[in-house]
């Protein structure tokens, strides 16, 4: 999802054409499409994503959004072709936000059809939407499945009412089993997404949420530590003492509990904050992993559609105008909606590759590290932060301790 503050970089060209470097090695990388739907019913106090409630959208109609997104898809396909980027149909399509399911199901279907007509969708593609438990019903989910959606990621966050209230989440925890059942009946793969470390959340509260997730037997679980982002209402409440700041030690305990409980229930981590149901070989099943998010962690290519959406092709990164009105104005003019672009140098790409790939269970190839970084591997093994057997096979794979201290591992390697 797009961050709240855009980086400082060069202006993006209005014609949207890409430099030749964007196509280098493209056929070796997967291609995905991300569609950012920037609408929410309420603004959660912890969230700094590029989202807007109805009161913040005067002069902007949600009903116009699907048409604007399809127009950007047409623009993207044209510019990819004119820039000489080899055609690759989307291996993954991801609708994020915001709450994409605040739009009618027909709008999401229209946008997916737009992807099919423009970039194309590969056979067996993973097609996901995020959803709040109170934003869909059985008919809505069935409509998505009939249109080709394969997966839904529900923002459950917690099973405990007082935790949900602190996070400004509006759904009733009892609704989660209903929406999971409806999704499963429609044939959709289900992910349940959690947040831990909310002010006032105890370890027992967290255990209750984990038990509630496990009881639903989803194929995939995400669990992210609450981060206090500058400029959010939560940050202001903490600053004035209305609520306590998240406790790092408690969050570490919560992570360890999640890994243990999920492991006992037949899940394995495949990225620091993501677990998938195990396959017959005892490994996180590729069928249950988020292939779209794996594309981010592997530095694959994707085109981001919508206000504030980020894109990346071959080390060229750009981002769209943030406000829906500014985005729509550019789309209606036929200009690129992008406002900034940067081409990453080799050193930056190396650091980002380490930062992202070290987080995945498949690990980082040690022989791709420079000499100084390779010297650090023995110390990381001694400090029980990476797995010794994997290192002997040439892969740097984090231990549980290493996952808790992943930022420190990255610093030592870069």
From TrEMBL:
<keyword id="KW-0408">Iron</keyword>
<dbReference type="InterPro" id="IPR006638">
    <property type="entry name" value="Elp3/MiaA/NifB-like_rSAM"/>
</dbReference>
<dbReference type="InterPro" id="IPR013785">
    <property type="entry name" value="Aldolase_TIM"/>
</dbReference>
<dbReference type="GO" id="GO:0004109">
    <property type="term" value="F:coproporphyrinogen oxidase activity"/>
</dbReference>
<dbReference type="InterPro" id="IPR034505">
    <property type="entry name" value="Coproporphyrinogen-III_oxidase"/>
</dbReference>
<protein>
    <recommendedName>
        <fullName>Heme chaperone HemW</fullName>
    </recommendedName>
</protein>
<dbReference type="Pfam" id="PF04055">
    <property type="entry name" value="Radical_SAM"/>
</dbReference>
<feature type="region of interest" description="Disordered">
    <location>
        <begin position="1"/>
        <end position="21"/>
    </location>
</feature>
<dbReference type="GO" id="GO:0046872">
    <property type="term" value="F:metal ion binding"/>
</dbReference>
<comment type="function">
    <text>Probably acts as a heme chaperone, transferring heme to an unknown acceptor. Binds one molecule of heme per monomer, possibly covalently. Binds 1 [4Fe-4S] cluster. The cluster is coordinated with 3 cysteines and an exchangeable S-adenosyl-L-methionine.</text>
</comment>
<comment type="similarity">
    <text>Belongs to the anaerobic coproporphyrinogen-III oxidase family. HemW subfamily.</text>
</comment>
<dbReference type="GO" id="GO:0005737">
    <property type="term" value="C:cytoplasm"/>
</dbReference>
<keyword id="KW-0143">Chaperone</keyword>
<keyword id="KW-0349">Heme</keyword>
<dbReference type="GO" id="GO:0051539">
    <property type="term" value="F:4 iron, 4 sulfur cluster binding"/>
</dbReference>
<dbReference type="InterPro" id="IPR007197">
    <property type="entry name" value="rSAM"/>
</dbReference>
<keyword id="KW-0004">4Fe-4S</keyword>
<keyword id="KW-0949">S-adenosyl-L-methionine</keyword>
<dbReference type="InterPro" id="IPR058240">
    <property type="entry name" value="rSAM_sf"/>
</dbReference>
<dbReference type="GO" id="GO:0006779">
    <property type="term" value="P:porphyrin-containing compound biosynthetic process"/>
</dbReference>
<dbReference type="InterPro" id="IPR004559">
    <property type="entry name" value="HemW-like"/>
</dbReference>
<keyword id="KW-0963">Cytoplasm</keyword>
<keyword id="KW-0479">Metal-binding</keyword>
<feature type="domain" description="Radical SAM core">
    <location>
        <begin position="25"/>
        <end position="265"/>
    </location>
</feature>
<keyword id="KW-0411">Iron-sulfur</keyword>
